[in-house]
Amino acid sequence: MKFYSRKLIKPEDLNARNTLFGGALLRWIDEEAGIYAMTKLDTNQVVTKYISEINFISSANQGDVIEIGLGFKKIGRTSITFSCEVRNIFSKQSIIKIENIVFVHVDTHGKPKPHGITLDNIKPISNI
User: Fold this and answer.
1) How far apart are CA 105 and CA 57, in angstroms?
2) Across-strand partners of 82?
3) For the chain, how many structural domains are there in total?
4) Quick check: 4 pLDDT over 60?
5) For residue 38, what is the domain's CATH number?
């Protein structure tokens, strides 16, 4: 798993308990995974199809820095699947783990469309 982006937890990211609001974290994950899907499929015509069970392991507090990690899992005819882990950058303690996030390549009408990418021609992680 490669960790691509970092976020500073600010007051507007907190819930009523003054810890990281799960909705903010899921928004960041969806955005980061969407960008990753776009770079792997070489198109911005992708949508989130599925996010598997979300396992909140711990939380983060104001002033903490978190990092979002994504791992390529598989490529389908119209889809691409990743796993995700978010952790505290300093303690390396996991905050959340998601086994599967699936994005689908779509046409102008929002219908699934083959992306033409295979394991043989998918961009390596180092080129992202």
Assistant:
1) 31
2) 72, 101
3) 1
4) yes
5) 3.10.129.10
User: Percent of the chain beyond pLDDT 90?
Assistant: 88
- Three-state DSSP state, 33: helix
28-77 pLDDT per residue, tens: 999 999 999 999 999 999 999 999 999 899 999 999 999 999 999 999 99
Q: Specify the residue for token string 């819930």.
A: 15
The continuous run of DSSP H or E covering 103 comes out as strand 94-105
| Enclosing domain of residue 57 | 2-127
Could you tell me how many residues make up the chain? 128
- Strands (DSSP E) along 1-128, which ranges? 2-8, 46-51, 54-56, 65-75, 79-88, 94-105
Q: Is the pLDDT of residue 120 over 90?
A: no
CA 127 centroid distance within chain: 18
Non-local (6+) Cβ contacts of 41 within 8 A are 80, 103, 105, 115, 117
Q: How far is CA 59 from the centre of its chain?
A: 17
Give the pLDDT of residue 105: 98
